[in-house]
Amino acid sequence: MPSRFRLRLAATHLRRGGIVAYPTEGVYGLGCNPLDREAVLRLLALKERPTTKGLILIAAEFDQIESYLDIPNDAMQSRILATWPGPVTWIVPAAGWVPKWLRGEHASLAVRVTAHRDAAALCRAFGGPIVSTSANKSGRPPARTPTAVRRYFSTDQVLVVPGRLGGLGGPTMIYDASTGVRIR
């Protein structure tokens, strides 16, 4: 687990509009403050990812992302909460205020309450959810080590929070909360 100092450093970097790379369940994630439009657009440019695709947010607890969501019924909420914390990402109807730079061209938002100790600790240190997209250039394999992150991004672009990946062999599964159908 990253030291408290490293977590505070990363959280401060996020609050100042910086981008961090951090271990998740299966790959290194690339993240920023989801409410900082400039940081999100810079992250998307680094990844060479279209703004239309939308992004994933991770959180340490459901309370950190609840206001971002417009869950229409108890059955959907129960289905989602039964898998969290854990390595399952859900595409959920977004609250009306959620910015387009997070949703892309969708009315929904991809979210996960992570069980990965380091990623959850980073969300707690930051005080809320963070963007979580694989640390790579679009179309390239996701980084699984700090060295691999550095092959994609320089130290002036991304602050790396070293740590161990979880047990997944790749990115998390993604499900549509409305249908329960697995997307990835």
From TrEMBL:
Keyword annotations from UniProtKB, A to Z: ATP-binding, Cytoplasm, Nucleotide-binding, Nucleotidyltransferase, Transferase, tRNA processing
Leader peptide range in chain numbering: none
InterPro entries: DHBP_synth_RibB-like_a/b_dom, Sua5-like_dom, TC-AMP_synthase, TC-AMP_synthase_SUA5
Reaction catalysed by this enzyme: L-threonine + hydrogencarbonate + ATP = L-threonylcarbamoyladenylate + diphosphate + H2O
Subcellular location: Cytoplasm
EC number(s) given by UniProt: 2.7.7.87
PROSITE patterns in the record: YRDC
Coiled coil: none
Limits of the YrdC-like domain: 4-184
GO molecular function: L-threonylcarbamoyladenylate synthase
Function text: Required for the formation of a threonylcarbamoyl group on adenosine at position 37 (t(6)A37) in tRNAs that read codons beginning with adenine. Catalyzes the conversion of L-threonine, HCO(3)(-)/CO(2) and ATP to give threonylcarbamoyl-AMP (TC-AMP) as the acyladenylate intermediate, with the release of diphosphate.
Protein family according to the UniProt entry: Belongs to the SUA5 family. TsaC subfamily.
Annotated protein name in UniProt: Threonylcarbamoyl-AMP synthase
Source species of the chain: Methylocaldum szegediense
Upper classification of the organism: Bacteria, Pseudomonadati, Pseudomonadota, Gammaproteobacteria, Methylococcales
